[in-house]
Amino acid sequence: MIPANLANNPRLDRWVGFETPGRVRVAVGKVEYGQGALTGLAMMAAEELDVAMDRLDMVVPQTDRSPDEGLTVGSMSIETSGAAVRQACAEARALFTARAAERLGCEAADLDIRDGAFQRGGSPAGLTYWDLAGEVDLTQAPTGEAAWKSPDRHRLVGQDVGRLDLPAKVFGAAYLQDLSLPGMLHARVLRQPGPAATLASLDEAAIRHAAGEAAVEIVRDVQFVALVSESERAVAAAIGAAELGARWDNGRDLPSSVSEAVSLKTMEATAYPAGDPPAEASNRRRHQAAYGRPYIAHGSMGPSCGVAQFKDGALTVWTHAQGVYPMRQLLARICGLAPEAITVIHAQGAGTYGHNGADDAAVDAAVIAVRRPGPPIRVQWRREDEFGHEPLGTAMHIELAAELDAGGRLVDYTAEIWSGSHTGGRGSALAQTALGLPPPPPMPAPTLPGGVRFSGGILNALPSYDIPARRYTEHLVAPGPVRTSSLRGLGGPVNTYAAECFIDELAEIAGQDPLAFRLGMISDPRARHVVQRVAEMSGWSARGPGGGGQGLGLAYCRYRDRGAYIAVAVALSVDTEVRLDRMWCAADCGQVINPDGVRNQLEGGIIMAASWTLKEQVRLAGRGVQSITWDDYPILRFDEIPPVDIDLVMAQSERSVGAGEVSLGPAMAAIGNAVAHALGARIRDLPFTRDKIAQALLAD
Prior knowledge:
- Helix content is 29%, strand content 22%.
- Strand 22 and strand 23 form a beta hairpin.
- 51% of the residues are buried.
C-alpha cells in the first residue's frame, strides 16, 4: 500500500533526486520545529537508500520544491511523512537496482548497496546511483511494490544520531528572526483591542516624533495600521507612541471571570455526544469530580517573525508556521493573489511549536509587502504582541462520573467536556479581521476511524483502560471570549490529566493501590509493560501512606488511543509550593528511529507539562490578555527542573509512532496524583499555585 502522503504527491522526484554527483536530495513537506523530525526523516531516507547521512541535502520545505504534506501537527511527522519518505526511497532504490542489474547482466537480488555504490558478491560492482541517474526516470508514480528494509538489516535506524538542526542553533543565525535580506525594511503593526474595534483617531505627529530622525511610513487599510522604516529602532519606538495615541471605538471589555475554566459552562456551546448509552440507575458506587485547566500561552522563547517581498507580481514569504502549503492558501485569500504567484519558504522560529503567532506575523509582512512592493518587509513581534495577540490554548472544564461494581472494578465512565476550539485560529489571521475581509468558510470536521467526529477537545477523552461502558460529550464553545487554536497536544493532555487523576480517586474509593487498580484494567501487554516498568523505576513498592508533604504519583495513557504507550511517575515535596524531586518515564513508541531524539522529546514534554501544571495561566480582563510579560506569566525555571529518567522500549518490529506530545498528559496527571499523595488532599484545577495549595489544605 502506498502511504497517504506519497499517494497525494505521487512523483518520486518530488521526494528524492540524485542531480548532484555524490549528493542525494531529499525533500519533505513537514517542517522542523526543534523536535528533531528532520533528523529522523533523514535517517529513514539514508537507511532505505543505503547512503551516508552526510550525503543528504535535506530541502527546506518550500512550495516550489517540496511535496505538499499539509501541516506539521500531532506528533505525526515520523509516522506519516516517514512512511512516505521510506516508500519513495525504497521505490527509487528498486528502480536503480533494476537498472544496475541490467547493466551488469545479473539479477537484482545479487546486488547490494553501500553508501550509494553497488556491490556484487561483497565486491564493488563499479556503479553508483550517480552513474545511473541519467538512466532512471524518477518522474514516475510509485507502484507500492517496493519493500522497506526489515529491521534486522538496519544499519542506521535505531542508533543515536546528532540532530541536524543543532549546529546552527549553537553557533548562531539558525532562526527566521536572524534573516537579513538586502534592502530590508522593518515594520510593526498596531493591534485592535478586540475584533470589532474601529480606529477613531491616530496621532501621526507623535509617531513621527518618536521615530526621531528616521523616516517612518504609515500604511493604513481599514483597521490595519502598520509602521514601516529602514530603522528597526525607529519603528520600535514609533509603535509605542502609536499605541499610546490611538483612540478606538467598540473595544471589548472582558470580565476577569472568563479567565477560569468553569466559566465555559456559562457560554453558548454545541454538544457532541459519543460512546455507549447512558448508564441506567443502579446501586453501584458512584463518584463524580470536576477538573479544569485555564487558558495558557505558547510562551515561545522568541516572539514571532515574518518576512515578505512582493516584486514583479510575485510574493515570497518566509515563515516559521506549521506548513508552507496551508500558509500559501491563507496568503492567497487575504492578499487576493493566485496561489501560483506565491512562494512560501519555511525557516525555523525560536521556540516555535503549535499555532502561535507565526501565521499572523507572516500575514502581517505579506499584507504590507503587497501594499509596499519592492523591498523585503520584516515584521518582528514584541513580547507583548506574542502574549497579547497570539491564539491561546483554550481553557477546558471537565466533569467526570464513574461507577464501581461490588468488587471495586470500574465498569462505567462518563466525561463531560467544556472546551473552546483547539483549531479555531487555523485559516484566519488578525490582519484578515483588521482588513474587514470575510472569515474563511467553515471546514467540515474530519472523522476518525469508525466515523467519529474529530475534535481536538475529545483526544484521550476516555482513559486507556478496559472499561465495559464509556461515553463522553464535548460541549464546544465557539466563539469563545478570545481567539484560541492549537497548542501542543490539543485537548489530549488535559483530558489525560483529568482522567488519570480521577482514576487515582476511584482507586482510593475502591480501597486499592493506584498501580494495582490500573493493572487490573489493562490487558494489552505493551501497556502493562510501561506501567510496571515506571513503577519499578520509581520504587513504587516502597511508597508510603502519604500526607506528610512527600508524594509519589504515576499516570498512564496510550496517546490518542492509537499511538505510543507511556507511563510517568513523579516524586515531589509540597510545602507552600510544589518542588519536583525526580521524574521517571517508560515509553513504547514502536520502532525507534533516533533514540536520542525520542528521549529528548519525551523529556521536553515532561518539563513543559510540569510548567503547565505548576505555573501557567493567562489572565483575561478588559481588552483581552492581561499577562503580557514573563513576570505576569511565569514558567518553570531551570533550577526547578528535576532529574528525568527515560526508559525507552526499542520495539523495532512495530510501526513507528510519534513522541512529541505523548508525555504531556501522563506527566501532568502524575504530578497531580503525587501532590494529592503528599497533601492528603486533592487540587483539581490547574495550576497548582500557593493559593490553591492553601485552599486544599483548609478544605480538607
